[in-house]
Structures are given as C-alpha cells and as structure tokens.
Design goal:
By secondary structure, the chain is an all-alpha fold. It has helices at residues 7-17, 24-31, 36-44, 49-55, 61-77, 84-109, 127-136, 146-160, 163-183, 188-211, 216-219, 231-236, 245-248, 267-287, 297-321, 326-332. Helix 6 (84-109) packs antiparallel against helix 9.
Length: 336
Amino acid sequence: MTCSVDYGYTVSRLRGMENRLLEPGVFQRLMDSDDLSSAIRVLSETPYGKWILEQQSEEKFDKAIESELLYIYSETERFVPDPGLYFICRLPYDIHNIKVLLKGIFNQKEGGKRRMDLLTGLGNMPVDEMVMAIESEDYRLMPFGFHRTVPECVSIWDQSHDILQVERVLDEALFSLQVKIAGEMPFEGVRLFVRSRIDAENIRNLARLKRMGFESPQAAPFFHNGGSVPVEKVLSLLNEPFEGWERFLSFADVSRTLSSAQEHTGLDSLIVDLERSIDDFLSGILAKFKYSAFAPENVLHFLWLKEIEAKNLRILLVGIGNGADRSVLRRLLRNV
C-alpha cells in the first residue's frame, strides 16, 4: 500500500502535463468561430492537433477528443502508484461499452442494427476482449465482477425486455465498484469524490424520475447506496416540489447543485442546468487538493479536468456545427 509521500513525484509529473489542458482563451476563440471548420482550425493549434490530423476529417472530431483522453490515461498509468485512481475514472467507459454491446445484441434479436461505432477504447478492459467475451457468452475472464453482472443483465432482458432495469443493474455495478476500489485506498479525498458522485447521480435520477411520473415504489431501485445522503431521504423528495429540494438537502454538500432550482419553471430546464451544476460541484470537490504537493487526489483532479475539457469541446463543436446560439453554448460550458 502506498502512502501520500509517494505522490510527490506523481504530482510533479501531473504539473508538467498541465500544459495539455486548454486555456480559457482557447474556448473563447472556439466560441467566436464562424463555423465548424474555423473551430477545428483553432483546436488544431492545441495538443489536439495531432489527433485531428490523424482523423483527416472535420466530422470526426470526437475521435480526436477520445485519442487525447486515451493518451492522457496511458501516460498517467506510467507513474501513478495506485492503479485504483485511474480504474475509478475509466470504469464508466467499461459500463458504457457493456451497455452498447448488450443493447446491440438485444436489438439484433428483434431485427434491429448494432452500433459498434459507439464503443470506446477509454475503458479498463480492452474493447476486443470485451466484444469477444460478450458475443461468445464466455464471461469468465471479465474483470471487476462483470462476469456476474453481464449474465444478470441478459437474464433480466430475456425475462422482461425492460432496458431500464438492465441499465439500473449496470449503473449499480458501476457505483458499487467505485465504492469498493475507493475503500481499498487510504485516501479520504477519493472516497469523498466517489460519495459525491453517487449523491449527484441520485439527484439527477430524482429529477428524471419525477419528470417521468414515477411513484416511490417504482423509483426506489434507481437510487444508489454509498453516498453521503441516505437513499430514503432522496426518495422522500419525489413527492415534494423541486423548488424545495435544496432546502430539504441543506445539510449535504450536494444541495449546491440545486441552488438555481427556484429559477426554473419546469423540470426540463432544471435537468439541463443540473448537468452543468453537477459537473461544477464535483470539480469543486477535487479542486481543494490542487495545492497539496503530496495529495494523491491530484490524480483524480487532473483526470477529471481533462474529462470536463473533453465534454466542453463536444458541446462547443457539436453546437457550432449545428449553428447553435453562442449564448446557449456558453451557459452549457463547465468550469471555464
């Protein structure tokens, strides 16, 4: 087991990699771009330029963004003592790939098409190995307990054809794994980050389920344990007006994500705002470790900043390509 003093070198390496983070001025130049071609030219002047050239097409900017993220994860793995730190960050991509593959198989059984293009190489498990395991139904060598989770999902689909239940099981597996990995490391900030992510996801689900008209018994399975706020407390808010949610959760840090709830006229606009405020909230959880030269949490902070950067780029480039209003795009940006 490593201790925090081992992270002096790691943090120094991360500081050296910060030059790959885009300055706010780059986002302003992107915002000022007349069209997608102009925006891609701006991005070509940054560390993303190499990956853009490899794609040889403006429309494939998402692959360039993924290539930069993959480079960052690969480089970080070379010098981070605790692999759990990047396992936590990459697990959502593993779950994403499982969802894509399972939905593809389910669709194919019903005469639909599969979307293999939606798979990403950013997960912990190599894509080829995951495809082989799921398509051959040989789950034995799948890591992180996926050898139990995947057949459970297949069984749920065979019995009920309920894709929401399949996604619920996979999301529960994701958060359970993150809690387990964080609990095996002696870093309180990592555990705090994982708990905060669960709290934030429960708030997001609360808003979505209320919009869909779910009653408490139906909604209960979609809330995840492991956060700072008990599931029962979050579930009780389903019958309360969303304008009062912040007051009911004022004892918890996650209530900050609802600070603008009273400004919204409906759940649709609140949900859009929540996506941004949740990301900003999680950024704030990790930001306080930035100035500690030996804090392992700096690994999560750096990787999270890169993830948020990628999300901002996708928002801007998709929006610019579709001629979206720049003021709307600006409100959607995270932590810039």
